[in-house]
Amino acid sequence: VTASEPPILELRAAPFTKSILAELADRLAVPADGAVVGFLGVTRSSAGTPAPGQEAAAAEHAGRSVSALEYEAHPVMTLRILETIASEIRGRFGVERLAIVHRIGEVPLGEPSVAVVACAPHRDAAFDAARYAIDETKARAPIWKAEHFADGKVWIGEPPRDAPTTETTPR
Amino acid sequence: MQRELAGTREEILELPAGATIEHAWNGLVAKHPRLAPGRPSVRFARNAVYAPATTPLEDGDEVAMIPPVSGGASEARAVR
Predict the structure, then answer these.
(1) Closest B-chain CA to A140
(2) Which residues in chain A have their CB less than 8 angstroms from residue B71's CB?
(3) What angle do the packed helices A75-93 and A123-140 form, to 10 degrees?
(4) Higher model confidence: residue B65 or residue A45?
């Protein structure tokens, strides 16, 4: 048993760079792994879909550039949901060596806000696991995002899905 | 978003026996009327697990009011 026994599931207040994918891969991969799939979500300048009730705030900032993004989470519930997603990934794809790391706090433009790494002997399982991890995290984890503008902010998103996707993955 | 509207992160509510999550929401709205319009897009969790508004509560339960999240229900891909 090592200190980084997978899955690695974290909310981080401290910034990380794109090299987090390599760091997580180094911590996770074992010699049997022929595939390492990494995904980075990076903050972007173009505005997203405002949350219901935020339409007026969004209209005020229409056409302006986002200056930074702010993430806030319900930490206990988020970590519990990430554990559940990791367990679903073990069951659906047989992938155990998985990392999901999400930033909280203010993230400047162009910096990563979420990192996913999945390691498996073969690429199909690693791709499927990574895709499922990011899709389900975004749909289900209580993590909130606001776009910051020079003179205000807009909360982004939609109501969460409260259960795993029922879509089955064709293999 | 709801936290900023309410100006607080947490409220302690006294509810009658048999109260549900919906009753807790109503109690919260009574204290913070600005939350009321958000009801259609709020989801709930009881003790950090998603739960429908009809869920009965017990003494000491924590109810989380979950406004729209960064991804959301339509985030899942429609096709592979």
Answers:
(1) B72
(2) 135, 137-139, 141, 157-158, 160
(3) 150
(4) B65
The C-alpha of A80 sits at a distance from chain B's nearest C-alpha, in angstroms, of 8
Return the residue of A nearest to B63 by Cα: A77
> In chain A, which residue's Cα lies nearest the Cα of B36?
A53
Is the CB of residue B42 less than 8 Å from the CB of residue B25? yes
ipTM of the complex: 0.85
**Chain B residues near residue A169 by CB distance under 8 angstroms:** 80
Query: The whole model's pTM is what?
Result: 0.91
The amino acid that residue B69 corresponds to is V
DSSP assignment letter at A49: P
Rounded Cα–Cα distance for residues A25 and A64 (Å): 37
Number of Cβ within 10 Å of residue A13's Cβ equals 9
Structure tokens at A166: 């029922």
Half-sphere exposure of A28 (CA within 13 A, CB side): 29
Residue scoring higher pLDDT (A24 or B70): A24
Tell me, yes or no, if B72 comes closer than 8 A to chain A by beta carbon.
yes
Q: Which of helix, strand or coil describes residue A82?
A: helix
DSSP letter, residue B50: E
